[in-house]
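INFO  loader      accepted 1 record
INFO  loader      residues=123
INFO  predictor   begin
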Amino acid sequence: QVQLAESGGGLVQAGGSLRLSCAASGRTFSSAALGWFRQAPGKERDFVAAITQTYGITYYADSVKGRFTISRDNAKNTVYLQMNRLHPGDTAVYYCAAHGSGSFYYTKSFDAWGQGTQVTVSS
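INFO  predictor   done
INFO  writer      dumping tokens
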């Protein structure tokens, strides 16, 4: 089992940037695809981005494409989410997750989750 811990959230003004980090331990980090999801109050947890384990192929939700970048450093057992041009609609708790099986776009495909980090974008 892999353990995940997010950091880097906070309060930022619209148009600003944040970089989230997710440190992993346990199951061999480099063997797992990793993803970021977010959950706004009263809403479901939605896919944001994912990155494969071997070739680092990336996938993004349409709502963040061109603004967010997911990356990973296998030597540091860390996955990142660089978020640029943030707007209030990006306000949510952001979770990183380790992929189990199935489509990257669904929470049920991920079998390990961090506790989440709050991102708040003010207008």
